[in-house]
Amino acid sequence: MRVIDGRHASTARLLPWTGTGGKPCYVIGNGTGYVSRRADEVEDIQLDMAYELLGHADGLLAEPGVTPPQLHFLASRLSECLEQVHRIAESRGSRLEAALPQPELPEAEPPYPAPPQSAPPHPEPPWPQANSETTP
Predict the structure, then answer these.
(1) Does pTM top 0.70 for this prediction?
(2) 91, exposed or middle or buried, with CB in 10 Å at 0-12, 13-18, 19+?
């Protein structure tokens, strides 16, 4: 999401955590502030946890005596990790999209037709010229 304040554009970044009621949280800025750095750290932790959980899932699913509660717990944790990784991907994708040059938009046409340009004034008719037929 790109936010323009009149002087320059900045990006609204989707943060890797949610607010009250599960609503998305955003930070607006150039990506160098405290909240952006903290979000980078949280994303790194979430991605590391997802990778470790995948390794745990491989091991657990290879065991012959896995119980239904173990599988349920694993599926719940995998679902949480997938949600976090999806949020990270969405955030990074929107920041990449915002960093791309934006195409120039064509100028909007007025909602009503422009009045016709006034035609140049017609030249004055020439004054009658004296000739042999009109001169006394």
Answers:
(1) no
(2) buried
